[in-house]
Task: structure prediction
Amino acid sequence: MTKDNNLLIKLQLDGNKMLKHLDHVTKWNNGELIYPIYIAFSPSSLCNHTCNFCVYHYKKFEPIYFPKDRYFSLVDEWKKLGVKSIFFAGDGEPLLNKGAIEMIAYTRNSGIDISMNTNGIQMTPEKSETLVKSLDWIRISVNGGRNSYSKVHGTREKDFDRVIDNIVKLVEKKRELGSEIVIGVQCVLLEENKDDIEDLCKLLKKIGVDYFSVKPFLKHPGTEFNSEIKNKNLIIENLLKLERYSDDNFSFLLRENNFKSENFSRPYKKCLSGRFMIEIDARGGVYSCGPYIGEKRHCYGNVLNQSFDEMWKSERCQKVMDYIQNSLDVSKCMPYCRPDSVNSFLWELKNPPQHVNYI
Result:
């Protein structure tokens, strides 16, 4: 790893930051009630793209938007309960919710950290000022270059230029305001876009984003799409060479370990992360993690018809937690799921190795 890819270490894209929350960990380990540190939130259940690899193809994309006023009251509640961060992403495009920008600003003003994943189409210059003032980081999903973008995203060819222009304006606004927002672009490597990665990398560096990361396609059991990359090892070897574009202001990040999914194995036998991190969809459903959005067995409750605290302490929530921790076969879950690293940490805490004093 070059010195410039220290950004990968700082961002901890493939790890966890549980050591920074040992107060929560200690309470949890002692059997005390804790509230989530991190909430992935879906302002919208609709997306304006139909990416062929999307993990949410198993569900319907419908024009359902989380109500702005209810979100405001939830933020007030989460602030009192000690929630630390909210990530706008989920099963639709966040910025399709007309209240998303106000929701983002309200979160920042509350003192809760806020970030977002977006395809960038709705990331207009008019919204840029609030985004760069409010977000800790933003990750724009650009899964192809000029030759492959529209095919992968299932959209118009001119949308590539529109997204790139929106990114340019966002970077300009960041510089104008002296913002510390981290602007990243992420691409899922597919057979369809593999030949465009280097040109996209050079373009993004020229624009001035902070990083460009490439990760593998990970198939959800409920989706039919698959993408077998020909000469995969050679492609990865060549992608690693793109680290030469990294410098003090830009990093190319190949999430190399995640490409080894055929050798992926979980060191843990149970999913223990449910009290630390959750997903909320646009319908108000609260879930254990993203790949299970829509599955009743993984739904703790709904925050549109009760307070978060009531839902969190409910019999239903505890019942679902018990099912996930005691009955879910984690070997059948998607590899490299978001809670994976947190689960590894918690599993070792509950199941320590022998002779722990020999550090």
